[in-house]
Write a structure and sequence with these properties.
There is one protein chain. This protein has 7 helices and 10 strands. By secondary structure, it is α+β, with helices and mostly antiparallel strands. Strands 4-10-1-2-3-5-6-7-9-8 form a 10-stranded mixed β-sheet, sandwiched between helices. It starts with 6 loop residues before the first strand and ends with a strand.
């Protein structure tokens, strides 16, 4: 998705940047890990295929992706590609996949969220919660632009009015991830599916729910959207 191609999200706990070519070798290395493959229901790809997918995802109208990084100690102005998001600062990624609900009585878009903290040495330190809160805030602050790009690039018609809900599908064994999403207002729906996943949804006044989570956990108090320079 082009919506975030020049945008970085900076907080005291996390830095989110667009997925760019210089991130691919580290991303490829992450995806060779069998635990990550299981958690993300993914198959390993060749490095060349990963480069190809990065370019495709950058322009896909139904996918928004950020790479999460440790935050720089100080930011003066722009976020610089390969400097503020060098390979040794990369933590994981966040994705939003968009699908259209054709219910004539309540047309809208469903957003499916994925979160991965791939760097094992940084797991369990609050980076997942900080990443997810910043990502959700970005989605809900920019919902009109996101829906517009999805509509024009994928649906080929005028933008739907709203997100119906945001959802996540998580392996039933991944209690830590389920607990994280539940703590931010997502609730379980239905039974465990064929793939052993539970579905959780954020519904209703989603922006208020996310704002309430910010106040409750106070993990990020200085959210800023900055210009991202030098990415490809």
């Amino acid at each position: 998705m082009l919506n975030n191609r020049n945008t970085a999200i900076s907080t005291s706990k996390i830095l989110l940047v667009p997925y760019c070519k210089h991130h691919v070798p580290t991303y490829h290395e992450w995806m060779q890990d069998e635990e990550i493959q299981q958690a993300t229901a993914s198959e390993p790809l060749s490095l060349m295929k990963e480069y190809s997918m990065q370019q495709t995802w950058k322009t896909d109208g139904d996918r928004l992706i950020f790479i999460s990084c440790t935050p720089p100690s100080a930011v003066q102005g722009n976020i610089l590609a390969t400097e503020h998001d060098a390979f040794d600062r990369m933590l994981g990624d966040l994705n939003l996949f968009l699908t259209h609900d054709d219910d004539k009585d309540s047309p809208g878009v469903i957003g499916e969220v994925e979160l991965m903290i791939a760097s094992k040495q940084h797991q369990g330190q609050g980076y997942g919660r900080a990443s997810l809160l910043a990502f959700l805030k970005y989605i809900l602050d920019h919902d009109k632009e996101i829906l517009q790009e999805y509509s024009y690039e994928v649906l080929r018609r005028g933008p739907p009015s709203r997100f119906m809900y945001l959802r996540v599908k998580i392996g039933e064994w991944n209690h830590r991830s389920i607990g994280l999403f539940e703590s931010l207002g997502f609730g379980k729906v239905g039974e465990v599916n064929y793939f052993g996943e539970v579905e959780l949804r954020l519904v209703g006044d989603m922006k208020s729910a996310v704002d309430a989570s910010w106040r409750q956990y106070a993990v990020i108090d200085d959210y800023r959207e900055l210009q991202y320079v030098g990415g490809d």
